[in-house]
Amino acid sequence: MSIEDSEGPAPPSTNIAETIFRDLRGLILRGELTSGERLPGERELAAKYGTNRNTLREAVRKLEQQRLVTVRHGQGVTVTDFRKTGTVELLPPFLESSPDFAEVAHIIEDMLPARLQVIEFATRRAIRRADKTDIERLTDITELLITAFQRGDPALIGRGFQRWLDALIDAAHSVAIRWVANPYLEAYRHLIDRFPTLWVLEPTFPKHLEDLLEAFANNDEERAIEVTRQYYELVDGKLMQALASAVSQAGKEKSVDEPPASSKRLSVTREG
Amino acid sequence: MSIEDSEGPAPPSTNIAETIFRDLRGLILRGELTSGERLPGERELAAKYGTNRNTLREAVRKLEQQRLVTVRHGQGVTVTDFRKTGTVELLPPFLESSPDFAEVAHIIEDMLPARLQVIEFATRRAIRRADKTDIERLTDITELLITAFQRGDPALIGRGFQRWLDALIDAAHSVAIRWVANPYLEAYRHLIDRFPTLWVLEPTFPKHLEDLLEAFANNDEERAIEVTRQYYELVDGKLMQALASAVSQAGKEKSVDEPPASSKRLSVTREG
DNA sequence: GTTGACAACTGGTTGAACCAATATTAAATT
DNA sequence: AATTTAATATTGGTTCAACCAGTTGTCAAC
């Protein structure tokens, strides 16, 4: 097993409905369509996107399922307040879409401790429930990660670390933990695809992994938590510092060219 | 504001696509369609459900979006391993569908501490960030809840408690926490609709709420966490006991009439 | 002013035809 | 006989046009 052989970022998905879905989602997340606003009728929207009603409907259904809009027979489609109704799954597209970097930073800041709690919880269960196969898998990935770390390829480490987390969660042998963790893992997956340089790599990374493996070997739950918390608080702290400085930097540029994002416009017409 | 005026359980949704979606989802969650299996083609399935391809496709899309199936152009639709790819949103339909009560109990057991962590996290932030309006709202709901508690209507308390949690999360003033908490809140909403009697009500419930409000008034984060943890560990403990006894009871009945859930069957034909 | 039929929206459903990706089969080639 | 290649069947993807079904607003009748 090599660390390199994971599929890269998903293909750009030549899907028409998916494309329209992403476009509309972007409009909503960017604030160009605000909560309570009504979308044009399906017939009109289909015409604007140069497609037919069925395909257009497929896109709207996706919006509906992610709670970005509400569809009511006879009444049309209205935009939802996604800040209130969304889930962690919205994080990646929101990070890509939102023009308000300060808000993005805030959300990440609050998300990091939540993620840490999930990891801690998974670690506890994994320490208790991991079998020989799980530990072997974690050991293998750890070795690969350390090798990759010495070579110094952040993107490679990112993918490898994904696998490590995946193995950790498998080791917890808990459907519940898997379901709780999945949205975080997916968000992480998108994030390292888009901003591979943003993720902090500490010199203590290999040691952290080794300490953790040792805790597994000794069935030492508290030690594992201690090591985990230590490392993540370090890394997350640095990440938050980076975010803060990026925010203040963005703040300077902001006054220059930011259009006031007038809410009424629906610039979805295909440029012919 | 009255505690009663929330909309009851959602209307049975006369939607054809939604109905088919739920039926197929049930087959998957019940294990009658297992991971890796292929669904019949869209044309065939549409015929079986007595509908047309477009409507049928809508149902399949919903399955796809919830990661219950994978759709590939030219290859058909295959069932996914939802235990691996699912999220917390699957909890309510899984609880309703799964014939394996022991597994359900396991999942709930692991989900409860995760939920507690989310509540604790939200509480910490709420203590720090709640403004006057938030506290007033929490106070109002607390009063209503205590009144309802004295009257002794579990369903009513369930709905009121939903509101209480909602207010708590609003008070945290964090989009991230809202997004993390939403799947739990929704699961909770479904659960008290279906099993209103299962939820444990402790005599200490009113005191717990009052203590919490006091912690809010004093900005005492640690006290709030202490109170919260105390109450939930009590309640969750009792719930887990109830689950355990229900499991052993179900275990006795199990050997009698359980069909081995042969995986090949797709009993989706409309009985004419 | 109130009521009630009607018209004009809206999304929901239908069926048939065709396009595009894949899998299978049969034929041609080696 | 094994391999390659071409034809074909099967799958999902897209399009079209019509109609059904809830909702809202209008306007005439009362």
Question: How is this fold's topology laid out?
Answer:
2 copies of one chain form a homodimer.
Chain A lengths: L15 H14 L12 H7 L4 H13 L3 E4 L3 E4 L2 H4 L5 H7 L3 H29 L2 H20 L2 H18 L3 H20 L10 H14 L2 H37 L15
Helix pairs in contact in A: 1-3, 2-3, 6-8, 6-9, 6-11, 7-8, 7-10, 8-9, 10-11
The first copy, chain A, binds a DNA duplex (30 and 30 nucleotides) through α3.
Features:
homodimer, 272 residues, mainly alpha, Arc Repressor Mutant, subunit A, Four Helix Bundle (Hemerythrin (Met), subunit A), two-stranded antiparallel sheet, 11 helices, 2 strands, disordered N terminus, disordered C terminus, DNA-binding
* Average pLDDT rating of chain A: 87
Report the major sheet of chain A. Answer: 2 strands, antiparallel
Q: Supply the CATH superfamily name of the largest domain in chain A.
A: GntR ligand-binding domain-like
User: Class of the largest domain in chain A, according to the CATH hierarchy?
Assistant: Mainly Alpha
Q: Overall 3D geometry of chain A?
A: elongated
**Sheet with most strands: strand arrangement of chain A:** 1-2
Q: How do the helices and strands follow one another from N- to C-terminus of chain A?
A: HHHEEHHHHHHHH
The chain-level structural class of chain A is mainly alpha
Q: How many domain units of chain A?
A: 2
- Low-pLDDT stretches of chain A: 1-12, 256-272
Distance between the termini of chain A: 49 Å
Quaternary structure classification: homodimer
Beta content of chain A comes to under 5%
Number of E-type strands of chain A: 2
The largest chain-to-chain contact, stated as pair and per-chain residue counts, equals: A-B, 37 and 38 residues
- For the record, the CATH architecture of the largest domain in chain A stands as Up-down Bundle
> Count of helical segments of chain A?
11
Helix content bin of chain A: 55-70%
